[in-house]
Amino acid sequence: MRKPGEVELVHCTKYFSETAAVDHINLKIPAGTYCCLLGPSGCGKTTILRMIAGHETPTSGEVKIDGENVVGLPPVRRRTAMMFQDYALFPHLSCLDNVAFSLKISGVAKAERRERARRVLARVQMAQFADRVPAQLSGGQKQRIALARALITNPRVLLLDEPLSALDEYLRLQMRSELRRMQRDLGITFIHVTHTQPEAIALADLVVVMDQGRIEQAASAQDVYTKPLTAYVARFMGGQNVLAGRVSGITNGVVVLDVPERGRIELPASDPMPSIGSTAYVSVRRDRIHLTKQGASETVNAVTGKVRTIEYQGTWVKVTLEGATNEDFVVNLPDTEFFADPVNPGHTVQAYWKSLDVHPLVGGAGRSDRPYASGQN
Amino acid sequence: MRAPATDRRPWTFYVLAAVFTLFVLFLYGPMFCIYILSFQGPNGGLTFPLNGVSIDWFGALFHQQRTGDIAGAFSRSIPLALIVLTVTVMFSLAAGLAFRRRFFGAGLIFYVAIASLIVPGLVLSVGIGLGFQMLGLAPRWYSSALGAHLSWTLPFGLLIMFAVFSRLSWSYEEAARDLGASTWQTLRYVVIPIVFPGIIGVALFGFTLSYDEFPRSWLTVGPYNTLPLEIWAMTTNITSPALYALGTVTTVISFVVIAAALSSIAVIQSHRTRRRVARERAIKTGS
To answer: What is the ipTM score, two decimals?
Structure first.
């Protein structure tokens, strides 16, 4: 038997008055996947979640679960369950009755539904809190109750709307791994909306990066992070420097970009080949770059700039250069490499990298040039 | 550098405290005079000093007097207030739910409903009285006066429900729907229990506004007076402290109603927070 919980959006569009919150989205989430919808606020990720949940109807297009178009069906018939951002626990009911609510609605007798709710509470380690009301719980406890309340409906898809945003840092990391473990144990599809890159990277089998109602890239966490498709994804995920240049030649499998007044970038040619004379965007990982204090000696795959800030991060040191490109240029040096020959703010240094570490991007600079906090770490 | 703030209060504190004291005296002073004078001795008069202490004047209230039919007025005012309470709660709740969504004409309906708060009560009373006369209907407390009172309590109830619903997150209803509840089940098991303290507030307003209402009752009650009208009639011809005793009794009734409402809210709240593990404090850590 095929695993249940495959979700597919087909040409899905949602208009709120005149603006498209979700714009012709096609997305297939395989059964049993942990999928993160990632993007800045207002990018349409929550709208997608709510359309899958049945709390929003697409203006056009289809939402399919296990091949069946579920548009118009109530959540229970879809066998989806949603965990709300504020958890939406019913304040007048005990934790036990919150969890048992869906059983009460479907007519399960009191003794049995309480028994079953207790079992689910035990599963999220909240059995001893059965008689509390939500006001007596901490954020992490509320979240477990909300999880239990969603799981008792035996869903094939669990939808989580920014489930970790209300928690403090320590709890967030703890609950993050617990969600992942829970998903593995249950084997059902989790679709998790977040605006935090490390959260998506750490959790997801499939990361869907969104911007302005469109999907910029849907790929594994590793691909999204190391092989961003567009400049938007590269900037949004952080960890990359985005550079632009004019394609001046392609010879012997090497593409050469001219960067006016700053030299050249060379990278291995790959499909699709850029056309000569066009502007191409590339990215270079922050941790694949080295620094030298020897003036502007190199002109290929190197930029020169002034050190603006230095942030010690434990195992690496984050060095921010200004004047190297049109935006801040960030180099993450291993701590041993940095302290072997430290630089100070105000120093002029050259940053250089290998042509193999240059990653080509498709499309232009992206619709929004500087998406939201331009970098994590 | 400025010295750090000390514990001394600024002079404005004393000015405002004095103003507040005057206000409280003005508000409660006359009322307390009336309550005290209602315990006037059998031979006492309408003014201080007290000529002995007794509860004779309370007794006098419950005998049919030549001066007024107080027991009868109670027997109309209380049922009227209870009917007003019920109708106000039902319609305010329904209207409050309706106004959570924007619907065509919502603004117009809202202003039409609120306008009756601005219309002077006496004018409304005259209008309803005339209207009943023209239609050949006899005005009664349970028909014309009921309508007049509702014109006052419904907009009030609606405004309270607005405030209540503005704090109610949509996600509760969505969560209920997500868990399979129908619209009716969502209302019964989720929305009404959550807003119940607000509903009690509306009930309280409905009752006391009706119970105290004078201008809107004036030409609409017909031949049998409600309590405020009866008291007003008595002031013109009674010259005994029975009048004060009446004031004390009606105040006590109002307080009983308010106390009942507030304590039922308190009972609900404690029912929500007090469970078997009440003495345990919520544990701050996540597990």
So the answer is: 0.81
